[in-house]
Amino acid sequence: MLNDLKMFFEDIIFDLKTKLFSSKYILKGKCKRCGACCRNILFSTEEGYVKSKEVFLKMQKKHPYYRRFKISGIVENKKDFQNGALTFQCKFISKNNNCLIYPFRPSFCRKYPNASNELIYQGIETLDGCGYYFDIDKKFESYLK
Ligand code: SF4
Ligand code: SF4
To answer: Does any domain span residue 2?
Structure first.
């Protein structure tokens, strides 16, 4: 009972914080053309991040679109919610980090790095070494004064 109450209030506090911080982050920096975002892609299903080759093979069978990706590694010793997730490399990234289908790249590539305020508030960050980063909007700093 006490635990339920604790969780109930934690949820309310989390919702309030999310609302308070929403729309308070902006994207800063610029692309360094390192290609990391094309080599460290995470996929998820309704069960969470893809963590096994078998799940990925099923995805490829169901959606041929995924055949353009290959497993490039695994997330280790990072934030709990990503730990163990497989990373994928797009087959269209060249050795020089150029996108071989640049004019026709998918919208998620055009939008990267793009994350909701809620995800940023929960601690999501751009990839290590990425030239972009999420920062608090100046309007929020003035809001604190
Ligand atoms: S990881 Fe960041 S800096 Fe590197 S290519 Fe992608 S957007 Fe550019
Ligand atoms: S389509 Fe191009 S920009 Fe998108 S992941 Fe592949 S190489 Fe990167």
So the answer is: no
Q: Which ligand is nearest to the CA of 131?
A: 1
Question: Is residue 3 included in any domain, yes or no?
Answer: no
Please say if the pLDDT value at position 47 is more than 70: yes
Which of 90, 104, 114 maximizes ligand 2 atoms within 8 Å of its Cβ, making it the mutation to test the pocket?
90
**Given the CA of residue 108, which atom of ligand 2 is nearest to it?**
4
Nearest-CA residue for ligand 1 atom 6 is 37
Centroid of ligand 2 to alpha carbon of 81 (angstroms): 25
Question: What residue numbers bound the domain in which 73 lies?
Answer: 21-144
Q: How many domains does the chain have?
A: 1
What the block records as the tokens of 14 is: 């989390």
132 domain-assigned: yes
User: Can you tell me the mean pLDDT for 119-134?
Assistant: 83
Residue 106 Ramachandran class (φ > 0 left, ψ -120 to 50 alpha, else beta): beta
- Whether residue 24 is predicted with pLDDT greater than 90 in this model: the reply is no
